[in-house]
């Protein structure tokens, strides 16, 4: 059975958050189409800086702020709590994963000179400037390789990063994301809503007007 392997692919990196807010600016490379095929996903992830949210993140932020998810969650299609869409006569499976909304200046909707939801900030925020690149090995294993953004002002400062702690956080994120998506996929497959040869896409949230 294929495994999921999480590994920090760096050695002896120091990091201390400088509270500069650079990670609170969200980059959307709009030269991508609204539906991103999986073969271009790595390129998209390298060029973007979006804060992906799990259902647990969304619920925690909603409780903390009293806001409805629609006020801070961004998706391509209208957000309804379902992360999986099926289009084109079941030939397209679209993972419309929610991200944090941005203001006109690209900053997070909860950034006001500092993070206003720091105590319940999403796992993706807690990970920054470390990022995950997902690969599929020849034996079918899923590899979650943890690298980092060298342009972050906090890199090289403070204490050495605890790689094991970071790997545990990435594992937690992966498990939450899997629990968000898999039940929806399984229900759709069981009902025949997904074609056997369907192609999988990820969305570019905020690319166009909602449907």
Molecular structure report:
With 211 residues, this protein is of the alpha+beta class. It has one domain. It is built from 4 helices and 11 strands, in the order βββααββββαβββαβ. It has helices at residues 41-47, 55-65, 123-127, 163-190; strands at residues 4-8, 14-15, 35-37, 73-74, 84-87, 92-95, 99-100, 130-136, 142-148, 159-160, 199-203. Strands 3-11-6-5 form a 4-stranded mixed β-sheet. The model has no long low-confidence stretch (mean pLDDT 89).
Question: Topology of this protein?
Answer:
Elements lengths: L3 E5 L5 E2 L19 E3 L3 H7 L7 H11 L7 E2 L9 E4 L4 E4 L3 E2 L22 H5 L2 E7 L5 E7 L10 E2 L2 H28 L8 E5 L8
Parallel strand pairs: 1-9, 6-11
Antiparallel strand pairs: 2-10, 3-11, 4-7, 5-6, 8-9
Outline the low-pLDDT stretches: none
Derived from helix and strand composition plus strand pairing, the structural class reads alpha+beta
Count of domain modules: 1
Termini distance? 39 Å
Q: How many helical stretches?
A: 4
Strand order, largest beta sheet:
3-11-6-5
| Gross geometry | globular
> Mean pLDDT, nearest integer?
89
Q: Quote the beta fraction.
A: 15-25%
Major β-sheet annotation = 4 strands, mixed
| Residue share in helix | 10-25%
Secondary-structure element order, N to C: EEEHHEEEEHEEEHE
Number of strands: 11
CA radius of gyration: 18 Å
């Amino acid at each position: 059975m294929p495994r999921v392997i999480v590994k920090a692919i760096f050695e002896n990196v120091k990091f201390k958050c400088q509270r500069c807010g650079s990670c609170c600016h969200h980059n959307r490379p709009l030269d991508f189409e609204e539906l991103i095929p999986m073969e271009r996903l790595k390129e998209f992830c390298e060029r973007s800086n979006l804060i992906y949210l799990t259902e647990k993140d969304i619920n925690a932020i909603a409780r903390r702020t009293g806001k409805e998810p629609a006020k801070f969650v961004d998706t391509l299609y209208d957000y309804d709590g379902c992360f999986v869409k099926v289009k084109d006569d079941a030939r397209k499976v679209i993972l419309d994963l929610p991200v944090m909304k941005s203001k006109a200046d690209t900053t997070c909707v909860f950034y006001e000179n500092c993070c206003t939801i720091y105590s319940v900030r999403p796992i993706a925020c807690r990970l920054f400037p470390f990022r995950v690149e997902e690969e599929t090995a020849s034996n079918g294993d899923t590899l979650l390789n943890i690298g980092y953004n060298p342009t972050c002002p906090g890199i090289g400062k403070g204490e050495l990063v605890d790689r094991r702690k970071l790997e545990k956080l990435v594992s937690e994120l992966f498990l939450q994301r899997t629990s968000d998506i898999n039940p929806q996929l399984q229900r759709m497959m069981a009902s025949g809503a997904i074609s056997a040869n369907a192609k999988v896409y990820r969305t570019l949230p905020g690319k166009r007007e909602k449907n």
